[in-house]
Amino acid sequence: MSSVSLAEHVLMRRRCAIKVLPHKKVNDTSYLERFHREAQAVASLDHPNIVRAYDVDREVDGTTEIHFLVMEYVEGHSLQDLIVDDGPRSYRDTADYIRQSATGSPTLTRPGWSIAT
After folding, report:
1. According to a count of CB atoms within 10 Å of the terminal CB, is the N or C end of the chain lower?
2. What is residue 53's predicted lDDT score, i.e. its pLDDT?
3. Which residue has the higher pLDDT, 28 or 107?
4. What is the mean pLDDT of the segment spanning 5-16?
5. What is the arrangement of strands in the sheet containing 64-72, beginning at the earlier edge strand?
């Protein structure tokens, strides 16, 4: 599983999320291809309920290779955090979360696509 960290572009003063491929997966060609397909898929989407991709790249420092995806940072909490912190949501809140998620889902229903986590 990849890790995601908060970063800031110094010159642009823009916060972003950086998803980094696990070091142990760098030499796994199928995992690396999946990571790049995810980056291409996210970059091709444009919807207010789906984060934007800014860049995908790799850095090599000696023998260490780091593959990363730079994405839009969205302020807030995950649904999981809300449930852990505040307990189960009401039916009304749950329906609202589903509605918000569903408004972006038609963008994701293209042939051959799957949703990555």
Report:
1. C
2. 92
3. 28
4. 93
5. 3-9, 14-20, 64-72, 53-61
Q: How far apart are CA 20 and CA 58, in angstroms?
A: 9
The three-point CA angle 92-72-49 to 5° equals 30
88's enclosing H/E stretch is none
Cα–Cα nearest to 50, from 61, 58, 38: 38
Provide the CB-side half-sphere exposure for 113 (13 A, CA): 15
Count Cβ atoms below 10 Å from residue 107 Cβ, excluding itself: 14
- C-alpha span between 73 and 67 (Å, rounded): 18
Q: Give the H/E segment covering residue 92.
A: helix 91-108
Cα 2 to chain centroid, rounded: 10
Nearest alpha-carbon partner for 45 in 71, 20, 8? 71
Q: Which CATH number fits domain 3-108: 3.30.200.20, 3.30.70.240, 1.10.3720.10, 3.50.50.60?
A: 3.30.200.20
Residue ranges covered by each domain of the chain: 3-108
